[in-house]
Amino acid sequence: MSDFLRSYLTVGIFLGVAVVLVSALLGLSSLLRPSKPTPQKSIVYESGVDPVGSGWAQSQIRYYIFALLFVVFDVEAVFIFPWATRLEAYGLFGLVEMGVFIFILFLSLVYAWRKGVLRWV
Fold this sequence. Notes:
CATH architecture of the largest domain: Up-down Bundle
CATH topology of the largest domain: Methane Monooxygenase Hydroxylase, Chain G, domain 1
Number of domains: 2
Helix content: 55-70%
Structural class: mainly alpha
Distance between the termini: 63 Å
Largest sheet: none
């Protein structure tokens, strides 16, 4: 067996052991835990407050777009960090490529700002 396949076999063994261990511990906990269901325990509540009204509420799309923009710019930071640690290896080409990347993200920020998405009202 080659070293390449042996490394995959090692990962497969660890994965199998992890699945068996998690299954065994979850099964053991379901057998040992106390179970005394009552109607009072089934009531839906949030932060210890009894619910009032229906559970459905309409929210504005603005909050979803704001969260999506946060994720986009958070991913930008994830891409910039490894680039910054290896800047010398990439040279001028890497610097130009990252400049183009940041410029495109800057344009998206300006677009979102002009559309009024960033107003938290």
